Amino acid sequence: EVVAVFGSMQMAASRLINLQHHRIAQCRTVQINIIGEEGVPIQVDGEAWVQPPGMIRIIHKNKMRMLSRNRALEMSLRSWQEKQRLGKSRSQLSHSLSQNEIQIAIPFVEATNNLVKCVKELIKHPVGLELYELANRTSSNLEKINLCGKIQQGPELRQLLTSLVNSARELHDQTCALLKENAKIMQLEPAAESHLNIALSMLELELRKCHFPDNGQSLVYFQFASEQDRKGKSGKLSWLKFRRDKPEKADSPKGISGDVKQWGVEE
């Protein structure tokens, strides 16, 4: 399509309003002859220049793909982004802790902190080096949650508590196993041993309130333990005591000391 304008003002106005151009013709080939002694300003998809007198021939060479605005696609993309934003906000809302869960999580955090302190103070024997590193990792998880003595609120709180529950349970189990196997070697004082037993027992009670749902989620949820879960099978808490072997009393029947060594945790 070959059109003409009659000045720069008309060309500028045609950019702003739907101004009718002077239509010349439709053609396959255009030849422009510049005659005279002065050049003519020309602009082709870029910076303009002054073309000296001569002949310009414009012919069709090939086709080129062009980008065009698709409003339907824009609306569809905007709708998808809005759904993604709403889905993310709902996911964060569903992962946030309720007020009841926070009330249950506070004693758990305190029990975990108490056990970490006991382990760091008492487990100084070389056999407890790995346990000491586990206590440091649990302490690091505690610092992410319990800043300045308060549990930090936020959408990532449940994920942080899940990491803390896993490390606290591992610390509890590893401490019990270490003391059960190396109680004689470590030679803990009776008062310190009793303090550690209480810390282990309190954390065991709090861990019973931590539940992982069966729907495939790996996040922890807090709820009060049932009466059956609060007690062991024998009706007593499964507290672990790691006493050093004492000399056998004179009036004790023979063979009792050997039998006691074979007793399990519940016995």
TrEMBL record:
Diacylglycerol kinase accessory domain mapped to chain residues: 1-48
Residues covered by region (Disordered): 229-267
GO molecular function terms attached to this record: ATP binding; ATP-dependent diacylglycerol kinase activity
Sorted UniProt keywords: ATP-binding, Kinase, Nucleotide-binding, Transferase
Domain Diacylglycerol kinase eta/delta/kappa helical: 96-211
Example GO BP: phospholipase C-activating G protein-coupled receptor signaling pathway
Tree of life domain: Eukaryota
GO cellular component terms listed in the entry, alphabetical order: plasma membrane
Protein name in the entry: Putative diacylglycerol kinase
Organism encoding this protein: Panstrongylus lignarius
Lineage: Eukaryota, Metazoa, Ecdysozoa, Arthropoda, Hexapoda
